[in-house]
Amino acid sequence: MVEVTFLCPDGTAVQGRGAEDTTLMELAKSLGIAGIVAECGGACACATCQVVCDEHWFAVVGPPNENETEMLEMAASTSLTSRLSCQIRLAPELHGLVVSVPEEQG
Amino acid sequence: MDLRSHSKPIEEFNFLDPAVLDNPFEYYRAAQEQAPVYLMPETGMYLVSRYEDLRQVLLDTETFSNNLDGYGMLQGENWKVHQGILQERGWPDLPTLNFTDPPVHTRYRRIADSIFNAKRIAAISDRIEELCNLIIDRFIDRGECEFVSEFSFPFVGTIISEQLGLDSEKMSTFKKWGEAIMAPTSRVMTVEELRENAETIVEMQHFIAGKLEERRKEPRNDLISALVSSRGSDGEELDMMELQSFMRQFLSGTYESVVTMISHGMLILLREPGVMEQVATDLSRVPDFVEEALRFDTAVPGLARLVTRDTELAGVHLPAGSIVMTRYAAANRDPAKFDRPDKFDIDRKDKAHLSFGTGPHLCVGRLLARRELVIAFRTLLTRLKDIELARPLPEIAHVPHALLRPMKELPIRFAKADAA
Q1: Terminus of chain B with fewer CB atoms < 10 Å: N or C?
Q2: Number of structural domains, chain B?
Q3: Which of B295, B302, B419 has the alpha carbon at shortest distance from B45?
Q4: Which H or E run contains B112?
Q5: In B, which residues are within 8 Å of A41 by CB distance?
Q6: Of B110, B119, B362, the CB nearest to A40
Q7: Which residue segment(s) compose the domain that B121 sits in?
């Protein structure tokens, strides 16, 4: 199991564990993280499951893939270390991952 | 509690009965309780009514394909007459955004996303608000209006015609075209009707071709200019056949559905106790109102998918070649997903309705639709108060339609709010 912490816009930190090879979005949904909408269910057809990593974790998680980059470019706001959580597969090296949930998705 | 005893046997309903199409929620509940994947004898299609089953269908595009002739599904052999006329004098149907699956779909989807994305919608929001106020100006002094034809339709019609480069003074022509695109999905038509329908589409296609050329030469700040200049992942611009397909899908997707959703929103304000006051006194609740309205009575109750291989859904065997009707409106009232699903509750925490679908075909116009709805209700509730129904609605309030829920009329009376 991979342990992850979500920093929510209301200031709370929610911790959870997800099975390897499931996605960060699925973990967020199972934890009921309010800011992770995932309207397209993980098909990389929207930008409503965005998370922001700090620089350290962004280097470990890696940059967005091509489709994901296009979706992020269309979102209302993003940062340089934004990712779509449906495109992040949980793996042992992500144990301890910390991500922020943005205030608005879209 | 045995819920089953409360619903009438599913066999006693007929999906195509205008009364059932008008108020389908008892039928949906009966289906959920008795036959969640139900082969409807009257259509030969399978109705999928439970939230989780529907989600599974929408996410698994390999088994449940969108690669079907969505426009002509009901027309059988006669559809060839319609298609022949387009082939001969217009542009034949080319599946692009709709009626395709990944990866063909993905190329087109990226282009559509680049046109309807959050930044572009934000950029046209002020104009949408301005148009909304202009439409209200036309009837506000009368203290009454027929809401569907005097607000919902001209509001949405003007936005779409501006954005797609169609002249808004040609509104009635535009309405005729929108109806011609959707008519074959609503009922079985005669050969003569199909012929006439195809002629209308050809007329629309030639008009659109002219507009596309105009914008290619002189781009403006509208969606149609963005469309002619956009390039797929292969770097190629869309050719005329592809552009025609896009425009047809934009017109069918962005028009009647939003018109109806705005009318439904008003109907909910009139019917649900306390909601009008709750939203009008705190306009920051408009987005919550809009999301709950989308869940409660969506304008696009269902679309279709083609089963590509023998499969099983909720214990029901579905042979390859079957058509599944994806009933979003039923899933949105599934008690297994939504607590007290028949209650309109703007404080509802779970907003994951399926009114825009989900998966790779998640509605590409959802950001525009939401923006139009939020601006419409924020502006209406700022300028009008004491809104009430001016006379009773017809006994069957909706035009019978398998995929949409157009309202026949919605006459209202109101006073001017002080803020106006």
Answers
A1: N
A2: 1
A3: B302
A4: helix B104-115
A5: 55, 58-59, 358-359, 362
A6: B362
A7: 36-416
